[in-house]
């Protein structure tokens, strides 16, 4: 009776989750096209204004898995509301900011709200009927990418008609509505994970993430061989090894290394890394390509608003495929969707690389990329949610989102290095820079096909995930009839 009552209004729960996740996704990207505007308004420099993005990236990377773990332990609805509160406070502070330090502080607070995504996945798994979980997870996963894409589209009109302050007022309104609705309407899940936060491993996690993300973000300006960048990347490597060792020995690990060794989980995380490389770099550099003056011999001389509209098919494709992802996964399997998504998005990037002379070329390319990412993001999240026990949904989804963010930072740094190589004295990159850069992104996302091949086939998803997890936790159960190791799904 309790389960029936909890799930009676899951559609209402889903509506609340979508508003909260959409606001978070918008905050990820709304500032990207208008950094020059913020530079002028906040009275800062081109180099310093990038901290508006970097601060948010670092905060979200650290907070996302921690918030997911706290939700698994203390209640996903409770921590979801806390995450929305952080987004609201950060958005209010950003909307009122008139100086760079205040804006950076606001973005750090907003980053704490990164937990909304894994927490939303956990709530869906706990509250929805089993047959509805895949579709709902797919839509929420696609919504994160759609929101990020729409942020690129909407930023120009918002700043032109209103002001940069409304880049934060609008998400603030959405977050407040979602937070109040979540507190009143979303039921708290009884699913809990025993234990407590291991703050030592949390500190180590933060350490290698900060070193890695700072290293790759500084590399394009300082050079990949500079002592600071090399030192940061070396520190990240040392700390991550220490972190893995500490988590493996911990009684209460923040990130269960046993869970991370499940084949579906590590394969989906590898896909997330590669897709992150492709998606976030494209969001940053496609508008730059479109806004390049035609006097450079390429580009369209588009305004911020016009370039955003040319990227609209990307968001539409993600959304439409996200809506259909549940049914497609049931019929074709999440692995096959990941493979298809990787291939289609790679083709889209190659179109951008070699065919960018007319607006039709761009619309075709962005449509292909949108369809590819819509398939891949939804399937990837479903794989992770299905592969782990219910009480680990939050932390597993959080780490998957985190790895995607790391991929985004790495992709942006590599793209900057490739595109700006040989730039003129005026700072305009050569056309070959964009060609080489988008070829690189196409190769990165196409490698997702290889990673996806390690995910078990759909027909064995349910039993395989459970058996694989059990085998890793209990080696004495790892042998089945015929001496085959559980989890070794040779097809």
From TrEMBL:
InterPro entries: MFS, MFS_dom, MFS_trans_sf. Its main location: membrane. Residues 13-460 form the Major facilitator superfamily (MFS) profile domain. Coiled coil: none annotated. It is a multi-pass membrane protein. It comes from the Bacteria. One of its GO terms (molecular function) is transmembrane transporter activity. Signal peptide: none annotated. GO terms for cellular component: plasma membrane. Keywords: Cell membrane, Membrane, Transmembrane, Transmembrane helix, Transport. The chain crosses the membrane at residues 12-37, 49-67, 79-98, 104-124, 136-160, 166-185, 197-216, 228-246, 266-287, 307-325, 337-356, 362-388, 409-428, 434-455. It is found in: Cell membrane. This is Putative membrane transport protein. It comes from Rhodococcus wratislaviensis.
